[in-house]
Amino acid sequence: MPKVTVRYWAAAKAAAGVAEEPYDAVTLAEALDGVRERHPGELERVLRRCSFLVDGDPVGTRGHETVRLADGGTVEVLPPFAGG
Question: Which Gene3D superfamilies does the record associate with it (predicted)?
């Protein structure tokens, strides 16, 4: 099973209480299920508004269950940012 790093930014980082953490997951959906299990509550609400990058590529509207993760890869959790 691929081992990936999930990195949290802004409100997601505040809700998770950490900047990043490892997960074992084959798809983005599996990784996010793990995140929700580990951090029930506020982070679950934040995730509903987030966009995601997998190894630097935007996930966009693709189904999270279709986005495969590579061993050593990175998932960036990006809440909406103010300003910009």
Answer: 3.10.20.30
